Amino acid sequence: MSIKTTRRDFLKSGAALGAAALAGAPAWSAGAQAPSLPAGPSGLRVVASANGVRATDKAMDLLRNGADPLDAVIAGVNIIEDDPNDMSVGYGGLPNEEGEVELDASVMRGATHASGAVAAIKNIKNPSKVAKLVMERTNHCLIAGEGALKFAQAYGFPKENLLTEKAREAWLRWKEGLSEKDDWYPPAKDLPENLRTALMTYGTINCLAIDGRGDLAGVTTTSGLSWKRPGRVGDSPIIGAGLYVDNVIGAAGSTGFGEVNILNLSSFQIVQFMGQGMSPEQACLKQLERVADKARLHPRLHGSDGKPNFGMSYYALNKKGEFGAAMMTGPGKFSVHDGTTNALRDGAYLFKA
Predict the structure, then answer these.
(1) pLDDT tens per residue across span 171-195
(2) 340 noted as active-site residue
(3) pTM of the entire structure?
(4) To which CATH superfamily is domain 7-85+108-114+204-352 assigned?
(5) Catalytic residue among 56, 164, 201, 204
């Protein structure tokens, strides 16, 4: 049964403080709360961003067969990384401003509090797998750029062209429409509908899981901001920003505007809020309010109404198996496999679109 939390209840809980300073109280809605985690294998949970329904299904199948939770979530997101039609992750991801696909990813295992990440890696289809190798085979947390590519090749990853024809056409249309004062001319006819959609495609995939022993793990992987400056790194490979896992408390991850997430270390903060007794959903909302409040300090990050002008979504799973998500602007969805049903669920949101 869904439990709808009112803003009054949220305020009473002490979890809504930051955004009160915004001009005009934000309208938000809460999604379904999860039951507590029962003991044993029936307590398996997998949570992901909205583009992760296939990932949660795959990860749950592996967890049911006794797989390590980190291996399960990585196998789940590999489906999206390998999909040329998903233009936000891995193969087929939208490129940087020079037409090169650069990928970021991080992994974290709750049981050992170990992590690994790669940033701005080119020509490697599954950065999440390379991130796991960084965690297991080095004493580093993050390897970037050419070093990350050489590291992956040393372990047998093939160097591949990740720019699909669909992504190349989207990049070309962006260049053609960038300025009226250069020599890049768009076609006279209107863009096809599928390409118009591709131009607006963005995102990341985050996936979190808990197994029957109560061990948590998570992964975040992305092709990053489309048309970015070469070498730009967002929050996805930054532990504490795009992903954080604490086996005693829970796990959190994010999708959205990475620079803001780095400045606020949002995934770490969400886990800390859960450690203070907040539900996963309340913790996500609380952090969104903090981010919205900080955004008011930067003229480029808010509109004339004081509301943030960027997208942000958070996902969280606690030690008891409770899960939740929240978006800066909603309504929005997130993926959950609760051990019985794999489906998209409504997330909470701070501002209504």
Answers:
(1) 998 888 776 666 555 664 444 444 4
(2) no
(3) 0.86
(4) (Glycosyl)asparaginase (3.60.20.30)
(5) 204
